[in-house]
From TrEMBL:
InterPro entries: AspAT_Ic (IPR024551), PyrdxlP-dep_Trfase (IPR015424), PyrdxlP-dep_Trfase_major (IPR015421), PyrdxlP-dep_Trfase_small (IPR015422). Pfam families: Asp_aminotransf. Signal peptide: none annotated. It comes from the Bacteria. This is DNA-binding transcriptional regulator, MocR family, contains an aminotransferase domain. PANTHER family: AMINOTRANSFERASE, PUTATIVE-RELATED, ASPARTATE AMINOTRANSFERASE. GO terms for molecular function: DNA binding; L-aspartate:2-oxoglutarate aminotransferase activity. Keywords: Aminotransferase, DNA-binding, Transferase. Gene3D superfamilies: Aspartate Aminotransferase, domain 1 (3.90.1150.10), Type I PLP-dependent aspartate aminotransferase-like (Major domain) (3.40.640.10). The keyword RNA-binding does not apply.
Amino acid sequence: MNFFAGFDKPPSQLTRQELEVCYARVMEAALDINMTRGLPSPAQLQLANPYLSLPGTSDFVSRSLIDWRNYGCLQGMPELRELVAEVLLGLPAEQIAVGENSSLALMHEALGYAFSHGFSTSPRPWIKEPSIKFLCPVPGYDRHFAMCEEFGMEMVPVPLLETGPDMDQVERLVASDPAIKGMWCVPKYSNPSGAIYCNDTVERLAKMPTAANDFVLLWDNAYAVHHLTDDEVPNQPLAKLCEEAGHIDRPLVFASTSKILLPGAGLAFFGSSRANLAWWLKHRRSRTIGPDKVNQLRHLLFFGSSKGLVDHMKKHRVLLAPKFERLEAELLQGLADVRQVAWTTPKGGYFVSLDLPKGCASLAVRLALQAGVALTQAGATHPGGTDPHDRTIRLAPTYLDLDTLSMAAKALVVCVLLAIAQNECSGNGP
Ligand code: PLP
């Protein structure tokens, strides 16, 4: 459907009245499209079908003679740790532990232990500190921000550039404020911009002096193997660089197979220095008899090897890359020459970040919702759900089929152009 039919000029040159006509056509189309969150599509979930019949009555005997059917093995099966450690976390198998089904839950758990007990480097449990602050690169992931709110942590936004967080700001802030105890990092194909932390950024994060002795990087490697192009970005060597810089306990690394197999039915992983791993397992021992080893065996049998996991992700790429290409093509066609409009072209991950002129994002999202296209709420990419410039919208193209995605993107273009026109008319223009 062409919402711009009959106008013989590019969409970006339409007047507000003409855009109102286009918007009325979008409304008439009675769309009902949800692209609020980055869900795998049904075709992606289908790839995991054989996984559902595993492990069956497998007579698998662990090399380490662990009986996977019984209690025990708090750290997780060695074979499974070897399979995922380097590829998902960039760490050796001895330095990771297998958790349950959600890496977010493990991040929450790590913060919980920090609050109740602190790290070995902490002067006292975090709960006893007058305030705890975390650096939050923006645009960022709303669930990270929600976790900060949950723990009563003050969020300090820092701009996320194409090369990673603005390191001049980060270094200045962490050096001067001992209440800043940590920072969220999605180092590869970040949610939502797709930013990739460059070597220089990672080195500076590893080396930077911090006023807090127990400063930690929550290194959320959610998109470790979620490539969309041949330019497959390797895991950054954060742990090695931290060790060389004398900050061995700084990284807390997380990953999961949520978006590799089935969300909620995968496995999550925690990795860090040997000392932090011991800290983690000590506290875990008081809360669980150990993670689900049947699921660990299921993963082992399904992937067979690290290469099996990487090969599996190539099938995801075949399904996902055309969606990102389609979204890009629609945005180019409708918004290419619009002032102060820009979007990211990620090489991996699940999202695209769209920036509009100041003051337009929430209006565009509202117009889209009224027209039957639910987008991620404007502001969700910023701490507290408030984008001070009201500019950024997270786009999640993964779930929709190509035709529906095209329709949603065409409708979005109309809503963006109309929001800009309405904003300018109300005197808030650039
Ligand atoms: N971290 C990031 C950056 C994500 O984008 C997501 C999911 O969208 C998650 C974590 C969720 O991970 P899990 O399913 O392992 O809890």
